[in-house]
UniProtKB/TrEMBL annotation:
Pathway: Amino-acid degradation; L-histidine degradation into L-glutamate; N-formimidoyl-L-glutamate from L-histidine: step 1/3. This is Histidine ammonia-lyase. Its EC number is 4.3.1.3. Keywords: Histidine metabolism, Lyase. Its main location: cytoplasm. It catalyses: L-histidine = trans-urocanate + NH4(+). Belongs to the PAL/histidase family. It comes from the Bacteria. The gene is hutH.
Length: 518
């Protein structure tokens, strides 16, 4: 079982959040956090008895914020808030996203800034640890006042209403009440302020940002690797990646990408075979080969900026109203998703361009006019076999979609709540399209990997370098080498699984590490 993750003691890291969301790591609540939660709750209960109205405690919500609610109706108010806001529609959201959302909301509840009772914190932790995943629908959040609908579906399940799934994606849908009973968890009966505290946060979009950044760590290295394989197999040069050339333009991401390319191509007999100007008369490689570190590096820098924003947001306690450190209950606008939405959109641009340049490198390998001696479409029997012709079509189709998904969601805003919420972030939508973009990028890199490794094999008897050769060997376990046409789709799916798992990047980096004399 994965190591437990403690909530309420320090800001969550991206790796901790991924462990809970994707790997099923259990959560524990820091005992000091429960003390803070109880103290904040005592303040809320004092205000609940105050004849003067306090937003979210003794009033309605949103456009109904001036409506005073009598004490005997406040439980109904909280339950009605959750039921009415659980208005999602569309396809189910992935389990890992819902678990990330739940962990982030639980982290905020444990901060002692929301005014919920300790039992609310304990119930959310118990649901996560029992593997109870509320069914959340794809559409419903505008990314302002928090991810209201997605968070409300989770809160509804904690109340014993709505539907959930148990451990694993394939479990049957079941009533939340039955799932809670089976796990020995009592349904929540919400008191003053608690309904708002459960739905006012950027947790959904932030969870998807954290998962995307985790995946991009692997995909950025993989992109450098597949570029190296393309450069090597298309008889490109590594001279343009020299450290002193990169230093002339001091961009950190570019330098890191170029360093990877140098390492992945180091000692390659194929590269060495045409290093002599008498053998190779080309002056320059095409941009998709020569400018790989510039494009990949820009994506790296974009991801670094997004990580900075995500790290700040992971340290936040977002609610409205919020309990301050000196005991005030204050309305605020921290639930607005703009900071997260902007970087989600920024990453979508980087992802689309990474896939675009990878597809161009793939296309060059298949064109005998540009591949420098490789057969058309890397076919076994030209004219009878089509080789990887349609694999490139698939990559092109994905890239076209990624370009559409790069159009920002955060520039849009549709007013809601009778114009009280008159500017919204659309951050949830930005996160949803980035998730699709990450999946598309992995598939385009997998197609470049399959193409590049076949091209390496076709350069025999020349052999690839140690890192690229090790990568090809890992791929060959699940994807056969050159030969007559066969069913291509399983090869692409198998390669995509290797890319997403990190096995491809790990094979190359392990080879580099084993050869590092330091």
């Amino acid at each position: 079982m994965p190591t437990p993750v403690t909530l309420g003691a320090h800001p969550l890291t991206i790796d901790e959040l991924v462990a809970v969301a994707r790997e099923g790591a259990p959560v524990e609540i820091d005992p000091a956090a429960i003390v803070r939660v109880a103290a904040a709750r005592a303040l809320v209960e004092q205000l609940a008895d105050d004849p003067d109205p306090h937003y979210g405690i003794s009033t309605g919500f949103g456009a109904l914020a001036t409506t005073f609610i009598a004490p005997e109706r406040r439980r109904q108010l909280q339950a009605s808030l959750i039921r009415s806001h659980a208005a999602g529609t569309g396809a189910e959201v992935e389990r890992e996203v819902i678990r990330a959302l739940m962990a982030l909301r639980l982290q905020t509840l444990a901060s002692g800034r929301t005014g919920v009772r300790p039992v609310v914190v304990e119930t959310y932790a118990a649901m996560l640890n029992a593997g109870i995943t509320p069914i959340v629908r794809e559409y419903g959040s505008l990314g302002c006042s928090g991810d209201l609908a997605p968070l409300a579906h989770v809160a509804l399940a904690a109340m014993g209403e709505g539907t959930v799934r148990g451990e694993g994606e394939g479990d049957d849908e079941m009533d939340a009440a039955a799932a809670l009973a089976a796990a020995g968890i009592a349904p929540l009966v919400l008191e003053e302020k608690e309904g708002l505290a459960l739905i006012n946060g950027t947790d959904g979009m932030l969870g998807m940002l954290a998962l995307a950044l985790h995946d991009l760590d692997t995909l950025l290295t993989t992109a450098d690797l597949t570029a190296a394989i393309s450069i090597e197999s298309q008889l490109g040069t590594d001279a343009v990646f020299a450290d002193d050339l990169m230093a002339l333009r001091p961009q950190a991401g570019q330098a890191a990408s170029a360093a990877n390319l140098r390492a992945f191509l180091a000692g390659s007999p194929i590269v060495a075979s045409h290093r002599d100007p008498a053998v190779c008369t080309r002056v320059q490689d095409a941009y998709s080969l020569r400018c790989s570190p510039q494009v990949h590096g820009a994506a790296r820098d974009t991801a670094q900026h997004a990580r900075m924003i995500a790290t700040r947001e992971l340290a936040a306690s977002v609610d409205n109203p919020v309990i301050t450190a000196d005991g005030r209950v204050e309305s605020n606008g921290n639930f607005h998703g703009a900071p997260v939405a902007y970087v989600l959109d920024f990453l979508a641009i980087a992802v689309a361009d990474l896939a675009s340049i990878a597809e161009r490198r793939t296309d060059r390998a298949l064109d005998p006019a540009r591949s420098h001696g490789l057969p058309p479409f890397l076919a076994d029997e030209v004219g009878v076999d089509s080789g990887l012709m349609i694999a490139q079509y698939a990559a092109a189709g994905i890239v076209s979609e990624l370009k559409r998904l790069a159009v920002p969601a955060s520039v849009d805003s549709i007013p809601s709540s009778a114009m009280q919420e008159d500017h919204v972030s659309m951050g949830w939508a930005a996160a949803r399209k980035l998730r699709r973009g990450i999946d598309g990028l992995a598939r385009v890199l997998a197609i470049e990997l399959v193409t590049g490794c076949r091209a390496l094999d076709l350069r025999a008897p020349l052999q690839p370098g140690a890192a690229t050769g090790a990568t090809r060997d890992v791929l060959r376990v699940v994807v056969a080498g050159p030969g007559p046409d066969r069913f291509v789709s399983p090869d692409i799916e198998a390669a995509t699984a290797l890319v997403l798992s990190g096995a491809i990047a790990a094979a190359a980096t392990a080879q580099i590490s084993s050869e590092d004399p330091s």
